Amino acid sequence: MNKALFVCMVALVVVVGHVAVTEAVECNIMDLTDCMPAFTSGKQPTEECCKKLKEQEPCFCGYMDDPIFRRYFNSPEAKKVEDTCKIPAPKC
After folding, report:
1. Quick check: 62 pLDDT over 90?
2. Which of 61, 74, 63, 66 is nearest to 28 (CA)?
3. Helix (H, G, I), strand (E, B), or coil: what is residue 27?
4. Contact 39/75 with Cβ under 8 angstroms?
5. Long-range contacts from 49-56, C-beta under 8 angstroms, 24+ separation
6. Across all residues in the chain, what is the average pLDDT?
7. CA distance 20 to 59
8. What's the pLDDT at 23?
9. In whole angstroms, what is the distance from residue 49 CA to residue 73 CA?
10. What is the pTM of this model?
11. How confident is the model over 55-75, as a mean pLDDT?
12. CA-CA distance, 74 to 84, in Å (whole number)?
C-alpha cells in the first residue's frame, strides 16, 4: 500500500470516529423538564422544549421502556407536542 493511500485511510478513520463521538446523545430525562407542561396539561411546547426533544429523540424508546415515563410519551398531549415540534412518533 502506498503511503498516500495509507494516510487517507487513517484520516478517514479519524474523521468517522470523530463524527460518531460528536453525534452521541446523553439520555437524561431531566433535560426535558421544560416539556412537562406540554405533556401534562396540553400547553404549547416552548421552543426550548422542542429543541431538547429533538436532541433526545434517539432516547425515546428507552424512556418508553420505563413505566413511569411511558404514560407521558403515550398521552394524547404527546401527539400534539410531536406535531408542534415536528418530531416523528417513536417506533420502538
Report:
1. yes
2. 63
3. coil
4. yes
5. 49/81, 49/85, 50/84, 50/85, 50/86, 50/87, 53/81, 53/85, 53/87, 54/85, 54/87, 55/25, 55/31, 56/25, 56/27, 56/28, 56/31, 56/32
6. 79
7. 16
8. 62
9. 14
10. 0.69
11. 91
12. 16
